Amino acid sequence: MPFDPFTQSASISENCNETQVESLADVLSWIDDGGSDLETDTRLDYSRAVKLVGKRLRKPLSSIPASTVAFRAEFPDAEYSLLWGKSFNAFKRWKGKVCAAINGATGAIAAKAERRARDDDWRTLIDVLSDIAARTPPEDALFHEKEIIGVTALADAARRADVPGPRHIPGCVHDILAEAADSGQRKAIIDALHLCDRIRTLRDNRLGQLLPDDPIAYSPVEVAQIEIPDHLLAELDIWIDLATRGEWSLTKKAYGKGIARKPYQDATRKVIRTAHQGGGINLAEIQTIASAFSDSVLTQVVRIWRKEHEAGERGTVAPRTAKNYLDAVKCFLERNGECTDLVRNILATDDWIQSGEAGRGMPERAKRLCRRVVTDMPTRLAFLSLHISYRDAAEDCLKMAEADPKTRSHALLMARLLGTCAAFAALETDAVPARVGNALACPYRGRGAWLELGHGRKQHGHLHVPASETKNGKAINAPIRADSRLRGLETLRWYEEKIRPLFPYHAESDYFFPAVQTAGEPLSYATLLKWWKKTIGNFGFPGMNPHMFRHGQASILVANNPGDWQTVSARLGDTEFT
């Protein structure tokens, strides 16, 4: 029987404290010297996995700390490389074995077993729920017996937070959630809190003695879910229009083309929602958005961002993002005739905000990806053939739809998802690394078509992006050769024939990537991002988003044209400086 690091803990609790475990060398000694009850095959398997850590980091095991947190930081899923495993699944299995060995050697399992063995109100609650589940027929059950697993996770987190029993939950919810190791555990704890409220309706005196007098009623409110009243949104639109419109034309008697609205819209709405969440304003009572940009409210907003980020909470604003928001707010207020002294002061004096300045430019994880696809040939080949991998997966779904009528609907949806990602990757790979927005807004029919796919085996395709849509103000003209070894044109034609008709409004839309729900519109970036993130981990590049994919393609373009920044600029549509 293989070793389960969270159940087989009896002998570990006896041996884990005999010697201090500080490095992976100590973990290896624990495995090899009989410090555990591992079976022979499992012992060899774990020993090989731990030794591989040293080889892959090129360090002696004695210099690598025996910490699962440090180990995961060295080998993050989002930066998976073929050097770390033949496949992503093999890489994940290897990480699981190493973490299990570390947990066993350091006594983390013994500590968890000790908490589970405590005879307290949490144990009583779990026993009562198990008894109710066993005695209640399935058709009459208020909860499924598997939901008790979530209560076990809640109990373990509460014990770590020194919460003595379920009756004390209401005042300690945030402390309990802070003990969650990951998003999955956090969700299990929240589900258990909801279960505690549901079971209050059961007529069982034992539950009445264990649960708090009032419902917990925990409901996490995401800032993005806070609705801004229509009259405030209308006023905000006027302010944004004043901040982004161009110069007045005396001849045309109208304002010229201004700057993009979205950065100002994102920044101001984030400030307003954070101010409401923090109690600085009440959106149901204020009559003007000016209240959200007063000195006191803006100060509170930045403090909230900083506090949440330093606490490591999910979905927080990073320093770099906060700086971008404040830069936009400064310009927004200035162009509307408001005082910007406070915002300037925060930008100049707040060390947390200033730490975002050091992170300007390409994110570190994007740099690592670009370095890998340029220097590591197996990774580069997998990267350049990503569209073929996506296409093969989509073809499998199409075959499944034909073979099994029961799964046809789901299989066609998956084929559309995978095929769209394949076509996007092919366009970026074999045409030009265009901006994602340009790729999605690409018309391929009508007089203004940007994309020409050609016909026949020897006729080439062509991509044209107008100068008005590029960053450097120069049009992009890129051939898509039919004889290219990258086979991008082949994938694009396949998408047009087999995948594009799966979109409900494909006939009404001239866009190569039609929208899913709106006729005549292009596919939104949010939809592509959702589809891409859902599947990219299966193809060896977990954590890579479409924009990072463009970065990687651009890096290969630069490597193939060293020093020729004019060519690179013309192909990317960027200035030579960027």
From TrEMBL:
This is Tyrosine-type recombinase/integrase. The lineage of its organism: Bacteria, Pseudomonadati, Pseudomonadota, Alphaproteobacteria, Rhodobacterales. Keywords: DNA recombination. Transmembrane segments: none annotated. InterPro entries: DNA_brk_join_enz, Integrase-like_cat_sf, Integrase_catalytic. GO terms for molecular function: DNA binding. Residues 403-578 form the Tyr recombinase domain. GO terms for biological process: DNA integration; DNA recombination. Coiled coil: none annotated.
